[in-house]
């Protein structure tokens, strides 16, 4: 058993990007960190960035419910039963016109970005309920603010994550579990090197050519920290996310026009 006074966070998608940056931040601030990912090399890289003895790693696929149980059982055995935050962060970036998308890609996007998050919530509840004042934190996206052309399956899953966050924050209130999400815009990660849907340009080139800002993963990690130390259900991260939220409320016509231009790319 670990030190029961040490706070603990379990992070999916902990092998890179937002998950890695969040692990570094929480670990540096004294939290015990559980890192889960399908990428064993990425997990080892992240663990090496944390103070010695602060992290344990779990190679798992968020679609695998048995793996969820095994990993959370093992992690909470190390933490003395504590799970202060479950960060449902794992996801994949996909883009391109829906009419040209393969059903395999559509199914994989929904299975990881939606069902993987739902698995974490459903299975994680029992562990979070044992720790007073615990949080479920989900990674949504600016594409959950207004449906994005060229990103329809991805955007659908992120809208669902946003809806799940709101619904469970009410449903779990009596259990003392708070549910939050972060809503990042375009994040500066290796995912941006991938080709934009239907284009020879990378996502990074497409985004910057459109004059949209990139947000550092360190800023997203700080937002994750703020989300589990505050009372906002949705925490917007980066100028693009804030501008989209403002436009969705006050200038929806402008967003409609932007989507008709076909400028869209994965946002986290």
Automatic annotation (TrEMBL):
Gene3D superfamilies membership: NAD(P)-binding Rossmann-like Domain
Record keywords, A-Z: Oxidoreductase
Superkingdom: Bacteria
Keyword hit for Oxidoreductase: yes
Similarity annotation: Belongs to the short-chain dehydrogenases/reductases (SDR) family.
Record protein name field: SDR family oxidoreductase
Organism: Sphingomonas oligophenolica
Source taxonomy: Bacteria, Pseudomonadati, Pseudomonadota, Alphaproteobacteria, Sphingomonadales
């Amino acid at each position: 058993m670990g030190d029961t006074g040490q706070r603990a966070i379990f992070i999916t998608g902990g092998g890179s990007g937002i998950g890695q940056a969040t692990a570094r931040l929480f670990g540096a601030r004294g939290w015990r960190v559980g890192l889960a990912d399908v990428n064993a090399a990425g997990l080892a890289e992240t663990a090496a960035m944390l103070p010695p003895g602060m992290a344990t790693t779990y190679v798992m696929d968020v679609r695998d419910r048995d793996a969820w149980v095994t990993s959370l059982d093992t992690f909470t055995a190390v933490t003395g039963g504590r799970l202060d935050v479950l960060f449902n962060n794992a996801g994949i970036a996909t883009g391109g016109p829906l009419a040209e998308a393969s059903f395999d890609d559509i199914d994989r996007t929904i299975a990881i970005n939606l069902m993987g998050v739902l698995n974490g919530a459903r299975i994680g509840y029992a562990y979070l309920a044992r720790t007073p004042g615990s949080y479920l934190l989900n990674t949504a996206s600016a594409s959950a603010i207004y449906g994005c052309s060229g990103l329809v399956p991805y955007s659908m899953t992120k809208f669902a994550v946003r809806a799940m966050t709101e619904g469970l924050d009410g449903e779990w209130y009596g259990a003392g579990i708070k549910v939050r999400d972060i809503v990042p815009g375009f994040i500066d990660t290796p995912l941006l090197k991938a080709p934009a849907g239907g284009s020879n340009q990378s996502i990074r080139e497409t985004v910057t050519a459109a004059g949209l800002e990139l947000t550092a993963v360190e800023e997203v990690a700080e937002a994750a920290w703020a989300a589990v130390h505050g009372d906002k259900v949705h925490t917007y991260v980066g100028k693009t996310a804030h501008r989209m939220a403002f436009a969705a409320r006050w200038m929806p016509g402008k967003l409609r026009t932007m989507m008709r231009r076909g400028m869209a790319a994965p946002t986290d």
